[in-house]
C-alpha cells in the first residue's frame, strides 16, 4: 500500500507531520524555499565560515542537522524535500504528484540562491575573504577533476553522486513509511543521519552535492570553472534520485 493516497501526494509526511489533503500550493513552495535556504545556509555556511575549525566531520554534521531541524519545522507543510533530486525520486517512487515537481524545484533553487547570496555578503565581512575560482571547493562549490577536493575524475564523481543520491532517496522513503515498531518522529533524525554519512563519504570526492539546488546556488559565486561542471551535479543526483525512488517502489510492500 502506498504511503499517500491519490489525493495526498503533495507532500511526504514525517510521522505526524502530514499536510492536509490538497494543501495550499503557495504555502508548500514558500516552505520549500525556506527549508532549502536553511539547508544551504547551515551546511555551506559551516563549510565557508567555520570549515577550518570543524573539518569534514563538522561540515557533515552541519548538513545533517540542517535537514533534521528543517524537516521538524516544515515537514508538515511541504514534506521537507529541500532538494530537486528528492522531489524527482519521490515522484518516481509514487509519493509525489508530477505536476508539483517543477514548482518545487524552482522554489528550492530560489532558496539556495538566496542562501548563497547571504553567505557571500557575510563572508565579505572577513578581511582576508577571497574566492579562488580554480581552487577545489571554492565557496563550498562542487567539482570533479581539478576541482575535486582530492582530484577524483569525472566517472568517479558521477558514480558517487548518483549512488549516494539513490541511497538517500531510498532511506527517505523507508523512514517516512508508517511502521508500528518505530515512532514516526524518528524519520527526520534518520534522514539527517543519512545525509551526515553521505557527506563523510563524498566530501573528498566532489565536496558533496546530492542536491542540484545546493550546487547551483554556490556555483553562481564560485567562478566559470565550477559553472562549467554544474551539469554533473544536476544529471547525477536527478538520475540517482529516480533510481532510488524506483528501487524502493519495487522492493517495498507499500
Automatic annotation (TrEMBL):
Keywords linked to the UniProt accession: Cell membrane, Membrane, Transmembrane, Transmembrane helix, Transport
CDD domains with a match to the protein in the record: MIP
Membrane association type: Multi-pass membrane protein
The keyword RNA-binding belongs to this UniProt entry's keyword annotation: no
Pfam families given in the database record: MIP
Transmembrane feature ranges: 29-50, 101-123, 152-174, 186-206
UniProt cross-references to InterPro entries, sorted A to Z: Aquaporin-like, Aquaporin_transptr, MIP, MIP_CS
Subcellular location: Cell membrane
Taxonomy, superkingdom: Bacteria
Family (UniProt): Belongs to the MIP/aquaporin (TC 1.A.8) family.
Protein name: Aquaporin Z
Taxonomic source organism: Lysobacter niastensis
Gene from which this protein is expressed: aqpZ
